[in-house]
Amino acid sequence: MRLTNIERLPHGEIWQWWSRLTNASLNIDNVLQCYQKYMSFTTEHLPTYKEYVNNMEEKMHDDEFLGDTVGLLQPSLRFNPQQGYELIKTQLIDKLPGDRD
User: E strands within the chain?
Assistant: First the structure.
């Protein structure tokens, strides 16, 4: 699994990252290195921390974005996208380099 470009990060990937962070042992430093390496090959402009967070905060208020896994996840799986995003932000996104202002 990879952390994709902010314009393409679907809600399903939020669920996947949340699931990995809560159910597996990840080397966060390696994940972030892979993200930066991947992005260096796929885009000329690596999003700044501020751009990434602003984009995700906007998506977290979009009903279509938040509801796109409803038909994909088994009814027995409980997932709160807001809580999932907060975990991902704390454990991954907040560790991205860049200004926080």
Answer: none
Alpha-carbon gap, residue 58 to 43, rounded angstroms: 21
Which tokens sit at 95?
């560790």
Other C-beta atoms within 10 Å of 5: how many? 17
Rg of the chain over all Cα atoms, to the nearest angstrom: 14
User: What global pTM score does this model have?
Assistant: 0.76
Q: Are 32 and 92 in contact (CB under 8 A)?
A: yes
**What is the 8-class DSSP label of residue 66?**
H
Query: How many CB atoms lie under 10 A from the CB of residue 31?
Result: 19
* Tens of pLDDT, residues 59-69: 899 888 887 77
Domain limits, the chain: 6-95
Task: Read off the tokens for 50.
Answer: 């501020």
